[in-house]
């Protein structure tokens, strides 16, 4: 299956300043803005916001 440009791979960086990141895919057609998810940061030991970086 070919990779699509409508679902690119994005990196989510922690807003806690720990330098942790997640990698995920997003649908650019449904979510054209930057993605923000609340995920677990093991370095901080709690759930924090992770923002998409480009």
From TrEMBL:
Coiled-coil regions listed: none
Keywords tagged on the record: Ribonucleoprotein, Ribosomal protein
Gene Ontology cellular component annotations, sorted alphabetically: ribosome
Domain of life: Bacteria
InterPro entries from the UniProt entry: Ribosomal_bL33, Ribosomal_bL33_CS, Ribosomal_bL33_sf, Ribosomal_zn-bd
ATP-binding found in the keyword field: no
Signal peptide (residue range): none
Gene3D superfamilies named in the record: Ribosomal protein L33
Pfam family, one: Ribosomal_L33
Family listed: Belongs to the bacterial ribosomal protein bL33 family.
Protein name according to UniProt: Large ribosomal subunit protein bL33
Lineage of source species: Bacteria, Bacillati, Actinomycetota, Actinomycetes, Kitasatosporales
